[in-house]
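Record type: monomer structure entry
Structure origin: computed from sequence
Chain ID: A
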Amino acid sequence: MYNQFNDDLRVSVLAGSNNLNEPSFSYGEIDKMFGGRATWDTRSQVFNYGLRGVITSRNYGVNYADDWGDAVGASASYFVSNTDNTNQTISERENILPDSRFFTNSNSSSNQSAEQHGVDSNFKIKIDSTLLITLRPQLRKISRFNSSNSSENSFNEINELINSSANNSFTESDEKEFQNNTNIAKRLGKNGSFLKFDIFNRTIQTDDENLLANEVNIFGNNPETINLNQRRETDNRNNTFILAASYRLPLKAKELFLDINYAYRDNTIQYNTKQKNNL
């Protein structure tokens, strides 16, 4: 961790890595280091809680805050977080039934990784003593990758192969999000009247690709092979726009007011899925 302060200028740098199956930094540590201005989005943390195996976590970040004269205050942060998880399982099991028994050997391995890039900024622009404009644009990109394969063989008591199976899967996803919140506040006169506008827009784009290959072999008097090869692609869009306006009319100067509010919201969601079987 590194911090530098010079009057209104504040610069912080953060970096960490571990393989202790936990994030390098907690949200509280990030928020404290970034002077209470951190905007770490817990909805999109990439740390993979609950997974088995070895998880390696890495975090990097930089935060900048300064006042540009008396009219503009600005802060911005860039944060990167990524994790890698590897896991391998080998098992040998004996299954005992009332009149027989059979043996099952299985082997599985998986690799998962995720990475998030986040840019958060905040600008306060004081046009004059009665007009304040606040802008808060945010940009976030999350990439996830997962591959796994497994195999299983079952044998009877005389070591004859009864059935076998093999499974391979691959998943890759990308999520991009941009949002901005604009607030405009104008004080009217000296009796407590004001006019305020809030404009919010957000766009989320998610692209996923999933490949699955399964093969099951059944041996004996009626041998059979079952194959399933599947490819699925999804392309989702989520657009949100919100406009809110407020006007305060003083009925009695600084004592009694009439508030007039207006709100408009538009949310458009598109889901597109393509799936092919037995490729």
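Annotation 1: Helices lie at 27-33.
Annotation 2: The CA atoms of residues 33 and 60 lie 13 Å apart.
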